[in-house]
């Protein structure tokens, strides 16, 4: 993928993330002000297809955005180039996706704790 395509993918992922961030922060403020416990929050998210899709798409966008951003940092600061740079960024994106997917599953799967 060219540098231009990576640049555009990162900008697009930021555009996708913006409403997710706003909704997430709004829900967290609502939960805190409402005095909801962790158990009550999980009771509302477990088994919910909406929250699974919401946070699942959020994780995909964050994984793409962060991996591209860290790729740029690794190139500029660590001097990585070529295949090493691309594979490192891909590995970072995959790790972020795996961790995020695990968290989404834990919060939305029925009976998860």
Task: Give a short synopsis of this structure.
With 113 residues, this protein is mainly α. Helix content is 84%, strand content 0%.
Q: Tell me, what's the shape?
A: elongated
- Pairing-aware structural class of the strands and helices? mainly alpha
Number of domains: 1
* Low-confidence residue ranges: none
Q: Which percent range fits the helix content?
A: over 70%
The helix-strand sequence is: HHHH
Oligomer: single chain
- Cα gyration radius (Å): 17 Å
Reading off the top of the CATH hierarchy, the class is best stated as Mainly Alpha
Q: Please describe the biggest sheet, giving its number of strands, its sense, and whether it closes into a barrel.
A: none
Portion in beta strands? under 5%
- Mean residue pLDDT: 95
Fill in the CATH topology.
3 helical TM bundles of succinate and fumarate reductases
Question: N- to C-terminal separation?
Answer: 40 Å
CATH architectural arrangement: Up-down Bundle
Number of helices: 4
- The count of DSSP E runs of length 2 or more, i.e. the number of strands, is 0
């Amino acid at each position: 993928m060219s540098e231009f395509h990576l640049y555009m993918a990162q900008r697009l992922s930021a555009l996708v993330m913006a409403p997710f961030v706003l909704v997430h922060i709004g829900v967290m403020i609502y939960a805190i002000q409402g005095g909801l416990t962790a158990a009550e929050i999980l009771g509302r998210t477990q088994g919910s297809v909406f929250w699974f899709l919401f946070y699942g798409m959020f994780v995909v966008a964050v994984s793409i955005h962060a991996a591209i951003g860290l790729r740029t940092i690794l190139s500029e600061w660590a001097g990585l180039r070529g295949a090493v740079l691309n594979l490192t960024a891909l590995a970072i994106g995959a790790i972020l996706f795996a961790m995020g997917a695990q968290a989404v599953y834990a919060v939305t799967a029925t009976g998860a704790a």
